[in-house]
């Protein structure tokens, strides 16, 4: 029986096909997996740069490209016949000898690049001072080493990036900008998804390499597993190495804080960590987020992620405010009123909940009996907007033990006036960072960082965090900023833009329209009458993502609203307004449209 691994591109390509072709491809794959009569057989590729590459005829006019080693098949892509044959001839594959992950090389393109590098090579080669042994120790490919030796400038390295596996490009880029061997190794090691294994890496063991590469391969053993990988959203199955390392760690002895910019996958890590703890932890798990709408979103995503109903029931999803209300209601026998006579503020309810929890489970240091706490594990998303009082309540709801608190957040995406260091509320956390956005194209990311101001923000641990190391892993469209003479013209422009996006084939559910306040939201909804497109405030877009986003009314006097006069309050208000707009801008995966009538917001980059 074949051992079949699916690559992340394959489900996306399959879903884009016409339904009859998609059905035939799935049936063919099921037959291949079961090794029954009528199953597709691997066909050799003439002129292939890697003899292990073959194709499988999966449907009329369409082939899958596989990398084969004995009974292991890595299904890379699904393309029309001519494109599949071309792809199969173009690429070669290997195993990084330093960290053991799989690598894909655009060998054909590199062959075309080599003469140009040779012609432009000067006597002073960039990596001449570094011996072959040191370069090979960084996992650089022996076959590609002569090519790397031709490089003379940092620009040469940048030009090679699209053609190289990231585990080859990353150490080269560090060395090219003057970094040390140890710095290059640190960057390479960040691509390790699992703990370092004892003993040497076998560069000929494709199966082991695929197991170490959760972002590149998912093994399926039967029809159920195959259908799961093909139908589930990609984030359910394929985790980037830093995400996998954090989400699937066997254990953490201390509270963990994961910080990362927009699109780095913080929420995905939180979801997978909650699922991991539910399956392998020591008790009930609480997944906490900023608001009830985000809690509903996370709950729906957990339903997709966790197939086992028993395991799914071990995870509760809530926000800190509702947790406080539940604790008080449980102790007092009725739900406390939040409005009207006798109503308590949310801050008062949080303090009451902490007091009641301390009475029933012991004080914050009394964790001799972890079973007295309502939860054994807690995962917190959108941590930057949790108040100090809420943090004390969350800390009291889980025992001080291994795998107690797993926290993710981004200080640059604060939409409240809350600023707190976790250590000040009894949570001395070990910090980890995610600094590569997989959602935003570099052009949109650069625009958003300039809009945000790029200044450091008070961190969730002592000190500040900045955006200097934040980057994207792909390029795309530049954001569009349009100025109109009147609000009527701006709304007409919005309607035309959304109509064009829908005509491009973008599903309505993948489009969002945002505005700073409800007045503009209502105007947008009137302009979009008859279109099933989401329109909401900037704050309500928090935690969500869409293929394309349109933001309207980004004008002077609206974004930001007139701030207070007192200098300190003014500075805080303006920074909060920048963060809110930054959050709204970074909801887009591919295209951002911003409009205003009259003068534009002073936050917009020139």
UniProtKB/TrEMBL annotation:
Domain UvrD-like helicase C-terminal per the UniProt entry, residue ranges: 533-596
GO cellular component terms, A-Z: cytosol
The entry's keywords: ATP-binding, Helicase, Hydrolase, Nucleotide-binding
Record keyword Chloroplast present: no
Family matches, as SUPFAM superfamilies: P-loop containing nucleoside triphosphate hydrolases
One Gene Ontology term of the molecular function aspect: hydrolase activity
GO annotation (BP), single: recombinational repair
Protein name (Swiss-Prot/TrEMBL): UvrD-like helicase C-terminal domain-containing protein
Species the sequence originates in: Nonomuraea rubra
Higher taxonomy: Bacteria, Bacillati, Actinomycetota, Actinomycetes, Streptosporangiales
